[in-house]
Amino acid sequence: MEPRKGDQRVRGVISPPQETSHDDQALSVRVMRSQVFASFYAETREPLARALTVTLGDRDLAVEAVDEGMVRAFQRWTRVSQLDNPGGWVYRVSLNWATSVLRKRRRARAIGGPVEGVVDPPTAAEPDVMRALAELDIRQRAVVVCRYILGFSEAETAEALSTRPGTVKSRLFRANRLLSERLSHLGKDANNG
Amino acid sequence: MADLDRHLYDLIRDRAGRIDIPGGDLDSVSAQGRSRRRRARVTASVVAAAVAGSATGIVVTSIGGSHHPTRVVDPATSGSATPAAQLNWHQQSATDGLLMEYQLTAPTGGAQYAVSTAPGATPTSGPPAQALYRSTNGADWQAVPAPSNLSVADLAASGNSIYDVGTGPATSGSPAAGVAVSTDGGASWTDAPLPVSMTAPDGALTVDDQVLRVAAGPGGVVVGVGAAADLDLSRVVAGATSQTAWAPTVQGIDILGAARGDVCPAGSSSSGPATPYTTGSGLTAAQQAQARRKLAASPTTVAGAHAPGGEVSSVSCVGSDGTVVSSVPPAQAYQVTSSYTWAQLGISDDAALALQGDAIFFHSSDGHTFTRVDSQPGLQSDGLTLIADGRGFAAASSTNPDQSVVYQSADGLSWTPTSLLPSAVSWVQNLGVVGGNLTAVGSVGTGSQVFQLVGGQWVKTAQSDSSASASFGPLGLALASSDSSGNVTVQFSPDGSQWQSHSFDQPAGAVEAGIMVAVGADRVAVTVTPNQVGQPATVLVGSPLA
Fold first, then answer.
1. How many Å apart are CA A124 and CA B486, to the nearest integer?
2. How large is the ipTM?
3. How far is the C-alpha of B335 from the C-alpha of B279, rounded, in Å?
4. Do B12 and A54 touch (CB under 8 A)?
5. Which of 99-138 (A) contact B at CB < 8 A?
6. How many contacts does A have with B, using Cβ atoms within 8 A?
7. In chain B, which residues have pLDDT < 70?
8. Chain B contact for A165, CB < 8 A?
9. How many CB atoms lie within 10 A of CB B172?
10. Minimal-distance CA residue of chain A relative to B305
11. Collapsing DSSP states into helix, strand and coil, what is residue A131?
C-alpha cells in the first residue's frame, strides 16, 4: 500500500535563507544556518509532534520529545541538515527519548503509584480507530505513523527507525492485518458513504 | 490500496491533523542547542581524561578522522587489573564485508558461515536477497553454494556438518519448511524433510509468515518452526461471519459473545474488540480518584461496546497512560456462546499449534531423520531463538504480553523454563554460552542488555543504550551499536562478565545503514555499511593483543 499522491510529507524541506549584508563571513554563515534551521523548525515541528502523539498516545510527552529532538538537531545541524530526511532523524531521536521517559515513568509508578501529568490517549474523535492503533506495539505504530502520517517511503521509514526495509514491510503487514480486522466495520461505512 | 485501508488511513491522518499542538519556542530550542554544543566540547575532553585515569580496566580504542587519532589506553599503565583478550583494532578492506545481521554459525575447523546479503551491497527497497557465506576470519566472506531448493532462514553446525533450515516451494498455499545438510563445507547438500502437517478445510487456513530456527550439538539437531497462521472461521463454522468474535484455545476455538465487564483494574480499559472495564476496587483510594478524574475527562476510552469480530488472542487492560496494566483471557473477558474442537473443525495438530501461536519442534539424532516433538507450552512462535548450549539446547520466545522466557533441554525432547528474564526484555535477540554460562542478549526499549544465568537467576552484566548487533563466538561475546551521529561502540567480553568498550568515530559517515558483528576464533569483525547506495562498507577488525 503506497501513500496517495498529495499526502502530507515531512521532509524538512529547506527554504533558501534570506541574504544577509553582514560583513563578517563566519557570522554570515552562522546566521544563514540559523535561518535554515528556523525554516525546518517552522515546517516540521507540528507535523512531527502530531505523528509522535499518535505513536505514543500522549500529546504532552510527544511535544516535549519533539522539542528535545529539535534541540539535538540544532546542536548537530551541520550534519543533520545534510541528511536526505532530517525530519526522519528528529522523529527517531524524539521517539527514542520519549520511550526512555516512559520507561522511567513505569519504574516510578511501580514504586510510588501513578504519575501525575500523563494525559489520556487521543481517543476523542474516532475511538475505534485510536483504540485499534493502541493495540499495535509501539514499533508497529511507529511504522504506520512514518508511512501514512509522515508520508515516508519504506526506505525512509527504515532509516528513521534504524531498522531494515524488510522489517518495515513485515511490521506494516502485521499492523495492517490487525487494523483491518479490528476496523472492518469502517470499510462498510466507507463503501456506503 | 483497498477501500478499507484507504478509508482507515484517511481517518488516522485526519485524526492526527486535528491534534492541537501548543506553540513552540524556537529561541529556547536554539539557545539550548548552542549551550549543549559548548558543553559537548568540554565533556569530550573530560571523558578522554577520565578513561585514561580509569581503574576499571576498560580499553578504549578509536578509529576516526584525522582529528581523532587511534587511541589505546593500556589498563596496566593506569594501575588496573588487566582483563583477558584486550583487542587491538584496525580497519580493513571495505568491499568484502557482509551487510545485514543474520545468523552465524561456526562448525569444526574455525570457519564461520552466515546467511546474509551480498557483500557490501545496500538494498534500495524491500528485503534483500539472502545467500550463504563462509569466512575464516569474520571479515572476508566468500559465497558458498546454498541448497538450490531452499530459501535459507537459519543455519547451525556440529562437527563437520552444516544444517540449513528454510522454506521450499509452496504446497497447499503455504511454503514448505525443510532442512538441508552439508558435510563438505557447503559444496553439496542433502535434503532432510520436516514432517510438518498443516491441513485444514479448503481456504480456511492461511500461513503468511514462518520463523525457522535450527540448532545442532552432541544431543542431535533440533528445528523450531513458528508459523503465523490465520483462520477464516466462515469456512469451518456454519453461520460464522467476519463479525463473529472467537478465540483459539488448546482444544479448539471459543465463539465469543458479549463482554462480561468488571475484568480490568480500576482506571484501565481493555484493548480487545469490546471494552470490559471496571471502576471498582483494586487500587488505592488516591489511584481510584485519579482514575475517575481521567475517565470523566475522557469518557470515550471506556465507552465502546462495539465488537467488530475476528480472532481475539488476548485482552489487555490498558491504563489511562496507554500502558498495559494486565492481561485477561478472552474467555474471561467475554461470554463463550459455543466451542469447537480442532478435530471437529478438520484442522490438523500442527495447524492448531500455529493458530495458537505455539512453535512446533522437531528432533533428529542423526541429522537426517526428523520426528515431531510434543509441543512445549510457553514456547511460542513470536521471537523464537534456538541454540545448542554445549550441554543440550536452549530456546527463547516471547509470551503474552511481551514477556520473554528462556527454556533449556538436555535432549531436545522436553524443555524446562529458566527463571523469568526481567519484564522489560521485549524479546531475546541472541542466546549463547560464554564463560560457561548461558547468556541472553535482550532487547530492552530502544537498547540491548546482556544477562547471564548464574545460580539459576538472570544477572544483567552489560547494556547498550541503542539496539545492538550481537554475536557469540569462540573468542567471547560482542555487541556493536551506533548512536544518532553514526559513531559506533563495540562492547566485547571474553566471559560475559568483564567488558571492554571500544568506540569509533563515524566509520561509515554520519548515518549508517546497518552494523553486523561476527566473533571468530581469533578476532572480532564489525561491518558498518554506509547509508549511501554503492558506497563500500567499513570493516573494523579487533584482535587480541599479543
1. 40
2. 0.72
3. 20
4. yes
5. 99-100, 102-103, 105-106, 113-116, 118-131, 133-135, 137
6. 221
7. 1-6, 31, 33-85, 93-110, 115-131, 137-139, 169-175, 208-210, 228, 261-310, 313-328, 399-403, 445-446, 467, 484, 511-514, 530-535, 546
8. yes
9. 11
10. A128
11. helix
